[in-house]
Specification:
With about 325 residues, this protein is of the alpha/beta class. Helices cover about 30% and strands about 15% of the residues. The chain is built from 11 helices and 12 strands. The protein starts with a strand and ends in a 10-residue tail after the last helix. The protein binds NADP nicotinamide-adenine-dinucleotide phosphate.
Amino acid sequence: MKPIIYITQKLPEQAVAKLRDSYEVRMWHDDQTAAPREELLEQVKEAHALWTMLSDTIDRPVFEAAPNLKIISNLAVGYNNIDLDAAHEYGVMVTNTPEVLTETTADLTFALLLATARRIVEADQTVRSGEWKSWTPMGMTGQNVGGATLGIIGMGRIGEAVARRGQGFGMNVLYHNRTRKSLEDVKYAALDELLQTADFVVLLTPLTKETKGMIGERELSLMKETACLINVARGGVVEEAALYEALKAKKIWGAGLDVFEQEPVPTDHPLLTLPNVTVLPHIGSATVQTRLAMMEMNAEAIAACLEGRSVQNRVC
Ligand code: NAP
């Protein structure tokens, strides 16, 4: 019998073809939805490898139901959806897909920053709805990007790639991390100093116990009235109720959000009622080339684990 690989969403055939010779590949059949929880719990009873998405909750009950499981390979660089303590306890290896998505996610971060600063989505809607009556001196005015201060919280792989883009636009770049780095023309700042100084606060930390709710009422109150918050990290890094209040009361100028506490974000979410928020459906790494490269990493990690070879990109 071939070892079984279960994939929680439908992937393109080219991403899984190489695995089919040696493994029994089972995959959720619908390309618009993810495998429901009950299906996942059923499939892991037999699976030797699990290929997961960031939207799958891989908690203790999943490990308890999976006696054969050797590896979980997550199609993301973030792995906050997986209980690593349980993985460790059950002797299951976990891998992610770092680096191949760095430049793509940095592009999206910068696109969201520009769209928020220059009200691109709102402006597009104004044209389509017929509200554009004439050119007006202060109509659709945004915030300057060139010459502004970019504050990056979470200066890792993607943070550094965003910093390079900021420098290309003539921005002054500050960053905040737990550890300091020696980077050219980029200055370290304590969290409060960064929040008080930056015109664009960009979040690029992982979601951890430490970063959960890191940006709340107090932090938002330190930001400038003309500043924008850009979140491409994970929704849980920001307290959404506090962000809504800050935006509504115009304590900050705007926000660009690729990620939400609950995804998909409910269409009646208060943040979606505000014109000064630009929202995206978690598309940081979403280019054809990058998603295929990420899938290649997952497939290779699974094959290496099941063949007893050394496995790259282990997080556990
Ligand atoms: P990375 O290289 O590990 O960078 C993360 C950075 O966050 C590190 O430099 C780390 O520095 C810093 N950090 C961690 N905890 C912190 C804390 N408590 N306070 C301040 N800084 C902290 O990861 P990456 O590849 O750049 O990815 C970053 C995150 O972006 C991922 O974890 C994921 O959640 C998110 N992401 C989102 C998308 C999307 O589609 N929206 C796509 C890719 C990634 P220290 O350890 O020195 O603090």
